[in-house]
Amino acid sequence: MNVEYALEQLKNNGFKLTDKREFILNLFAENKRYMSAKEVMELLKMNIPGLSYDTIYRNLALFTTLNILESTDLEGEKKFRLTCSGSKHHHHLICLSCNKTKHVDECPMTSITLNSDDFEIVDHKFEIYGYCKECQHNSKS
């Protein structure tokens, strides 16, 4: 997802297009990785005087509700990234060091057979954690 499309989603859903929201979205677009609310706050506090955690959390929650951001739990903390562009179903490899992601087009759900008539699957989440090539190299240096 790009920032222009995200801002359009906000507008189409009746939300104001504020400088703070645009700064937050641009931050995610530039970093292309999962970030915590604390990281967002640290990276934006110099550009936005008076920015509060409440503003960050409220906007991250809004963006997640509107499917602008996706979230995951890493190291016991909720982290966010821009929702992937395109509609093709996929999963992610997630680096535990830098939180960058890589698409995995295969889905393990295709090999799971449920013999249960009393349960309907409506969604699933599959993430693989490890270390990207760059972080592996940096840890060996």
TrEMBL record:
Keyword entries, A-Z: Cytoplasm, DNA-binding, Iron, Metal-binding, Repressor, Transcription, Transcription regulation, Zinc
A Pfam family name for this chain?
FUR
Q: Quote the protein name from its UniProt record.
A: Transcriptional repressor
State any GO BP term from the record: negative regulation of DNA-templated transcription
Q: Which CDD domains match?
A: Fur_like
UniProt cross-references to InterPro entries, sorted A to Z: FUR, Fur_C, WH-like_DNA-bd_sf, WH_DNA-bd_sf
Instruction: Identify its protein family.
Output: Belongs to the Fur family.
